[in-house]
Structure formats: structure tokens, C-alpha cells
Amino acid sequence: QVISGGHYDVDCYVEDPNGQTIYKETKKQYDSFPHRTEVEGIYTFCFSNEFSTFSHKTVYFDFQVGDEPPILPDMSNRVTALTQMESACVTIHEALNTVIDSQTHYRLREAQDRSRAEDLNGRVSYWSLGETLILFVVSI
User: Fold this and answer.
1) CA proximity to 44, closest of 68, 24, 66
2) What is residue 54's DSSP assignment?
3) How much is the pLDDT for 78?
């Protein structure tokens, strides 16, 4: 997700270790890309700002490696139903994952809004300084 800069858009591509492009998008503000790897090695991802060289951008990205391990041992091999305590643990775990996703979303929004506020503060400061200078010139 592009947090600040320009029109909040950026180009992105992902390549596998063989050099094959597995994802390519242009001028995106945010996107999600799930991919299960088939080739072992180093994957390359690149964010490009070629089309907008005058504006600097801040980009947030997050990736997960591997599957989440089961929260209870033997959960994948289990044949019987979960106990009430185990079921409650699974429910709490899922709720906490939702909370983590929400916190990340709100942190990104806060960073975006903070960037806009700081930009606006700078513009107001320069405008006020200009008005002050004009006021002094007119009064002299």
C-alpha cells in the first residue's frame, strides 16, 4: 500500500528464482497478492516510481512465509471433536488475528493522515510567513 506521495500509486512486480514474472501491476495504490511457491530460492520484488520521478513515495508491504502452525498440538491429526477449552482457544486465536489485521490497517491510515497533516502544516506555515512579509511591506 502506498502511504504517501504523488497520487498514491506505484508499479510493482515479483519474480521467482528462475526470473519468471509471477506478478506485475502498474499504478496501484494497494493490492494483495497470495502465492504459494513452487520453486525454492530467492524471490525478487520491486516497487518502481519511474512514471512519477518528482514525488517521493512511502510504501508499506507485508509478507508471510510458510503456513501458520496449528495452535494446538495434534490438531491436524485429530479425529475427535475439540473440547470446549480447545474450541475457545481457537476462537480467541482467530479473534486476535482479526485484531492484528485491524491494527495494521489503522496504523497505515494514521501514517497516511499524519503525512497529509504535516504537508498541510508546512503549507500553512509558508502562507503565514508570506502574509507576514506582505503585511510588513504594506505597513512600511
Assistant:
1) 24
2) T
3) 64
**Residue 25, SS3?**
strand
Nearest in space to 17 (alpha carbons), one of 35, 44, 36? 44
C-alpha angle 83/84/86, rounded to 5°? 65
Number of Cβ within a 10 Å radius of residue 1: 20
Q: Could you tell me which of 3, 33, 28 has the C-alpha nearest to residue 108?
A: 3
For residue 49, what pLDDT is reported? 84
Residues 116-127 have a mean pLDDT of 93
User: What are the start-end ranges of the H helices in the chain?
Assistant: 84-139
Contacting residues for 116 by C-beta, under 8 A, at least 6 apart: 4
Calculate the CA 103 to chain-centre distance: 12
H or E element at residue 83? none
pLDDT in tens, 17-76: 998 898 998 888 888 888 888 888 898 888 888 877 777 888 888 877 777 777 766 666
